[in-house]
């Protein structure tokens, strides 16, 4: 009952006109960036981080959550009409959705994606409401060694499961951990890896790194691969949702929801894995398996539901444990930290009104997204016609202005450029950027918890693995890695079949 009462108070806050406008701004921006190929929610949140410092924390986080949810909705539009996913979690949607559009059923594909996203997002947010406080209550009792175990699980799974190569993921993680060590050691007071630069004594700002990797690096990468000439968009054809389409979609929506949410709560589960599993499940359970590969509506409904359910699932470890398991979640953690707020078990106690207003805004944002994506879909298609040179030139300009506004130090612009170039080469050579940001954010926290554990145990290293929770966490890690190997093999077989 306490959760329900707090949620109602959160609605009272989120329903204020000011916060409704912020939620509308967030979901609108999120939908727009989800539609645009090559721009994702992580880049947009990173780009807006410096520009929202004048807002109070509740308003800024409502905007970021709206961007996160909106990006999941918007990505389906380009997948279906352009066969170019706006973000990685929409890749599976393109398999069937684009073929539906080419067959003159684009309207039905867009409708089942939008309605499925709404259904899944709402159910998953209810589950988030019910589970998050209970998990936070348990997490309060965890010791330093237990947190070290959780972070090792996050490090390993994010690095090993994101991207095509575990080795590249681990290399990206190592780079992030190194950047996180730059600055002054809190225990000894000695400077580390600062190269004698005074401004680096306080460390490299997370915001500068996030903007550099996601905005500058991505802009340089996309610019290097720009296609010349206009983009051909398939016209939206056919009826929206007929009785047959409703009958074939509602079960995949529910299945996708209950596949996506639990996977989203697991470190490095995320939307990518859940959409693949949902597609495989629908293909196996389909009454018309011969339509798969030719435009089966189940292949759009299930993965899109799984995509949005996983987005809510990702917020569970983020809010209750302070563990980001996706690139966008890592940037949202940076947003929390920029306001001096640390996500974790004490978040619901120390910042309860803000957290419940944020959760309430997710319900409101889901309704807004349904309204934005069904009647106004033709407007989002127009966004695809923005000339790419203008778009990415604007991104670079806002990245530079926003970075300078963080500390008003010119050295930050030099760091931004260096990180941006590193991000460009990472993207070009297939190194995932999410492990870098996760390592940067969690690295200093992991170092602090390791030191605390060793101080308590008087230097006994076995204390890191002997607590019951830590032992269970490491066992789960072994299981996750084994499952990941199996899923990779199955995905390769599916790709060959498709």
TrEMBL record:
What sections of the protein cross the membrane?
20-39, 45-69, 108-135, 147-163, 170-187, 193-217, 314-336, 356-381, 393-426, 469-489
Kindly indicate where the leader peptide sits in this chain: none
Q: Which InterPro entries match?
A: DUF112_TM
Q: Which residues does UniProt call coiled coil?
A: none
Keywords of the record, alphabetical order, are: Membrane, Transmembrane, Transmembrane helix
Domain of life, per lineage: Bacteria
Stated name of the protein: Tripartite tricarboxylate transporter permease
Cite the source lineage: Bacteria, Bacillati, Actinomycetota, Actinomycetes, Pseudonocardiales
